[in-house]
Amino acid sequence: xxxxxxxxxxxxxxxxxxxxxxxxxxxxxxxxxxxxxxxxxxxxxxxxxxxxxxxxxxxxxxxxxxxxxxxxxxxxxxxxxxxxxxxxxxxxxxxxxxxxxxxxxxxxxxxxxxxxxxxxxxxxxxxxxxxxxxxxxxxxxxxxxxxxxxxxxxxxxxxxxxxxxxxxxxxxxxxxxxxxxxxxxxxxxxxxxxxxxxxxxxxxxxxxxxxxxxxxxxxxxxxxxxxxxxxxxxxxxxxxxxxxxxxxxxxxxx
Length: 254
Known about the structure:
Layout: E1 2-11, E2 14-24, E3 29-33, H1 40-47, E4 55-60, E5 63-64, H2 70-75, E6 78-80, H3 93-99, H4 108-114, H5 119-134, H6 150-163, E7 168-172, H7 180-195, E8 199-203, H8 207-213, E9 216-221, E10 224-229, H9 231-235, H10 238-253
Parallel strand pairs: 3-8, 3-9, 6-7, 7-8
Antiparallel strand pairs: 1-2, 1-4, 4-5, 9-10
């Protein structure tokens, strides 16, 4: 589904991402890991259209989409969440999820939020509720986002991304700031998303989650690809252990 070829991004004279290549198969959970400053979020921003590549290509279903704006990528089936929550706190949970579907509404974003009077508006609210149910936050539809816990907001943001009906979902550190039980709920959600046929590209520091749900793992270090493979291959790679996982993790894994 996704093919990245020699992707490079310079900021001034510094290469945040340099000559990175990898592929993501449809239906997989593909994780990107590495130390802070490795270029993971920059890579996400390049794939999702926030940044334009300095060099290289991003292919979606064989078509070059590098440099397309996020809204045009969303129309091609690419949705994402962000490392820092991007939730409208003055809206209800349901309204937040409805925002994610605005590209598919003929009336546009403003018309879709003015009132639920037309049949199409009611259908949109019903669809938003269904996405919230899938994300495990269906009970909070009428609550304002400001009333919700951090863990619920994390899953609400995923529900909003799902409302765009993506084929490829990018999750940027979804477990950051979550406790163990919230992380377990999130892990189960990502599994459900993948089982539904949506491909997931994931940046995450929680290695227990990554190793448990990933079909393939890409390891970045200083903007370059350090390794790639299955969870077993990555956890046994001496370069990955030295650069990121550490000897203690290797001992625990064994």
